[in-house]
Design brief:
The complex is a heterodimer of chains A (400) and B (342). Chain A is mainly alpha-helical and 400 residues long. Chain A has two domains: 311 residues, ABC transporter involved in vitamin B12 uptake, BtuC (Orthogonal Bundle); 32 residues, no CATH class. Chain A contains 18 helices and six strands. In chain A, the strands form three sheets. Chain A has a two-stranded antiparallel ribbon. A two-stranded antiparallel ribbon of chain A has the order 3-6. In chain A, a hairpin with a 1-residue loop joins strand 4 and strand 5. In chain A, helix 12 packs across helix 13. Chain A starts with 9 loop residues before the first helix and ends with a helix. Chain B has 14 helices and four strands. In chain B, helix 5 packs antiparallel against helix 6. Chain B is globular, with a radius of gyration of 20 Å. The chains are: A mainly alpha (400), B mainly alpha (342). At the A-B interface, helix 6, helix 12, helix 14, helix 15 and helix 18 of A face helix 5, helix 6, helix 10, helix 12 and helix 14 of B.
């Protein structure tokens, strides 16, 4: 307990940093940047030219914006214990619709055409999000499977919209979204603005808490008076809108809509970014700042592999290893094992470590329940309970 | 213990059976109803094709369904095992690509064909075992682990080589070009025979062995299966190993079909496999389903593809939309069935 006044001192700050969930992601990001800078000192240099910032770091921000935006939507979806696999396909559809609308307008170079294209694309994304939410919240289909439908059919729809062609547009206003600069790339400004808005809305009101509580137990939340379905539905709509804007950025960056390759595998990147950021796939807690760091790590990793001259496709190997490592670190079983070892090794600092471990306990404790529950009506926790119940008292009787 | 074991299949059997309020005693047992529905859908689609297009209703068009989808059949068989346990395996498409890549690269390096085949099978099974172990022992969600497996397998393809490698091995070539003539002048390839043998073996394993029954038990309720003393961990890991093995076999069939190895082969094939299994009537929550249903599911996808190619004016991306729609239809149907029974 003597540590309590120490929170204001340097040691206390260090302690708080140590306990932060963001510590390891930030360390990883810094390590990646440092490693790159060591290899190539030009990596960290940023120069101002014609009112634009140039440099590798700025490129990372610019290319990472779509991933960040999609990861932002994904964070909220995952916080409700869901997943959205269709974001890549939705991004492709948004790009396809925007480009075909602009290309088909009376004056394809006018800003009005761009506005129309964006509105049409985002309206369609809204519908797609409503559709995903309908399947998950109302029909109660498992999120992976429900969004798998759109993931499969979505690229087909995008191909249908573009008629199988790569649609190119020449429109300066449209180009601004993904490739424009206002000192910083406009795309990252949009993504950061969205992140800020979400942070403000969910963390400065009770909404974030409600989303988390739906993720922990939708049924209990409903009984407590929350509109679980509406919240889940909203989250999927938001994810689809984020994916739509990201799709606009991707197609605007190359001034073309490629139904096959736009946003290909971006859902994986987004999930990865969310998981690295410390949001648990089991739902119930999320970290927006973690997602920001996670998305930056992913993009930096991709850029690193590019700059090392390895085939860009090989990034997948690194990404897979990172996913597994992060998931293993998050797994309740592994955490438990770590904690047990710490307890047995340090005898002197038992109280201190136990006090430090309590928040971690609180994090990990509900996890087994969450794992058991979503299996559905077949899970039959009732069958397991009597067995546990009958087993436990017997042991108690036997012990004295 | 022994008295509880036979009751398991009965409860799963009754569940789909109660879904029709009007018919108390259905002529068809409820648990095979989804398979029958898929079969009816297949017959319907084939019938529509036969009526609309000249030359559709021939034995060869039917045989081509098997020839062009032999690898998908094998893939769906493996996926059935995993989905029956209540899991999912997203890595299979990538493992197919990895298998073609390993086969092509090692054959180019001059290794004999039998050794290459063994190597590919070992790689696929090994990856399956590792994923199964991680899923079971660390209690991670199957989809995230197999997603990582998918990344890993795709990445490893590109580690081997970024370009497509063609296969010139005489054994693979003869397997690709060799045909068997059936009565009536219908020609099939060896891949079809291999795929059908695998379907038969899988059906036998699922219904006639202890391992198969344990798979159904785990899918019905994992905790009940564990309380019954069934080796849940071992069987679950084996199910992923089977899926990996099937993916490797499918990869070999695919490399025979394409006669090349390439890291971008079979992109999205895992979705086709899952769709076939679901359309074949297997419940995604596990415990209910048949390998034969998955075979029919593949045939339904195949006949849709054939219909679209016969139509000629429709573009190939309609296939994706059609598969997505069918998948949705069957999922919603499943959902309605399972919701009826509390």
């Amino acid at each position: 307990m003597s540590t309590v006044p120490a929170t204001t001192t340097a040691a206390g700050v260090l302690e708080r940093v140590k306990g932060s969930r963001l510590l390891w992601p930030v360390v990883a990001l810094v390590a990646l940047v440092v490693a790159n800078a060591a290899r190539n000192p030009g990596f960290v240099s940023i120069r101002l030219q014609d009112g634009h910032l140039y440099g590798s770091l700025i490129d990372i921000l610019k290319n990472g914006a779509p991933t960040l935006l999609i990861a932002l939507g994904m964070t909220l979806v995952i916080a409700t214990r869901g997943i959205d696999l269709s974001v890549g396909a939705v991004a492709a559809i948004a790009g396809a619709v925007a480009c075909t609308t602009i290309a088909g307008a009376a004056d394809p170079t006018s800003p009005a055409a761009v506005a129309k294209g964006i509105v049409v694309a985002l309206a369609l994304c809204l519908v797609l999000g409503l559709w995903n939410g309908f399947l998950v919240a109302l029909l109660g289909i498992q999120p992976i499977i429900a969004t798998l439908v759109l993931m499969t059919a979505g690229r087909g729809i995008a191909m249908l919209v573009t008629d199988g062609q790569i649609i190119t547009v020449r429109n300066d206003a449209f180009r601004e979204i993904g490739a424009g600069f206002a000192i910083l790339p406009i795309s990252i400004l949009i993504a950061l603005a969205a992140l800020g808005a979400v942070a403000l809305v969910t963390r400065r009101s009770a909404l974030g808490l409600l989303i988390e509580s739906v993720g922990i137990n939708p049924e209990a939340s409903r009984l407590a008076g929350l509109r679980s379905r509406t919240i889940i539905w909203t989250v999927y709509v938001f994810a689809a809108l984020c994916a739509g804007v990201a799709g606009l950025m991707i197609s605007s960056n190359v001034s073309a809509a490629d139904a096959n390759n736009a946003g290909l595998w971006i859902e994986m990147d987004a999930i990865l970014a969310v998981v690295i950021g410390g949001t648990s796939l089991a739902g119930g807690k999320y970290s927006l700042s973690g997602t920001l760091v996670g998305a930056l790590i992913i993009q930096t990793l991709t850029t690193t592999v590019y700059s090392m001259g390895i085939a860009p496709e090989v990034t997948l190997v690194f990404k897979s290893l990172v996913v597994i490592a992060v998931c293993l670190l998050q797994a309740p079983k592994v955490r438990e094992r770590f904690r047990r070892r710490r307890r047995t090794t340090t005898t002197a600092g038992v109280i201190a470590s136990a006090a430090a471990a309590t928040p971690a306990d609180a994090d990990a404790a509900p996890a087994p329940d969450q794992h058991g529950q979503p299996v559905g009506p077949d899970a039959r926790p009732a069958t397991a309970r009597p067995a546990d119940g009958s087993g436990a008292p017997k042991q108690k009787v036997a012990q004295p | 213990m022994t008295t509880t074991t036979p009751t398991r299949p009965d409860t799963t059997a009754r569940r789909p059976g109660t879904r029709r309020p009007g018919t108390r005693r259905p002529v068809i047992p409820g648990r095979v109803l989804p398979v029958v529905a898929t079969f009816a859908l297949f017959v319907l689609l084939f019938g529509v094709g036969s009526v609309r297009y000249e030359g559709f209703a021939s034995g060869q068009v039917f045989a081509n369904l098997f020839i062009d989808n032999a690898f998908l059949i094998v893939l769906a068989v493996g996926m059935t095992f995993v989905i029956l346990t209540g899991g999912i395996d997203l890595s299979v498409g990538a493992v197919v690509a990895l298998s073609t890549m390993i086969a092509a690269a090692t054959l180019r390096a001059g290794l004999p064909a039998p050794l290459v085949i063994l190597l590919v099978l070992a790689a696929g099974t090994g990856l399956g075992v590792v994923m199964g172990l991680v899923i079971h022992h660390f209690e991670l969600q199957p989809f995230i682990v197999t997603l990582a497996g998918m990344f890993l397998a795709r990445g490893l393809c590109f580690v081997i080589g970024v370009e497509s490698i063609s296969i010139k091995d005489p054994f693979f070539r003869t397997l690709a070009t060799g045909t068997i003539e059936l009565p009536g002048g219908v020609v099939i390839t060896w891949s079809v025979v291999i795929a059908l043998v695998i379907v038969a073996v899988a059906a036998w394993v699922l219904h006639r062995t202890r391992f198969g029954r344990t798979i159904y038990a785990i899918g019905g309720s994992e905790s009940s299966a564990a309380l019954m003393g069934l080796p849940v961990g071992r069987v679950k890991v084996t199910a992923y190993a089977v899926s990996g093995l099937c993916a490797a076999i499918a990869g070999l069939l695919f490399s025979v079909y394409m006669l090349s190895g390439y890291g971008l082969h079979a992109v999205g094939m895992e979705l086709d496999a899952i769709a076939s299994v679901v359309i074949g009537g297997t419940l995604l929550s596990g415990g209910v389903g048949y390998v034969l249903g998955s075979l029919l599911g593949v045939l339904v996808l195949g006949v849709i593809q054939t219909l679209i190619s016969f139509q000629g004016t429709l573009s190939s991306w309609w296939t994706k939309i059609a598969i997505g729609t069918l998948l949705l239809l069957f999922i919603v149907m499943q959902r309605l069935f399972t919701r009826r029974t509390p």
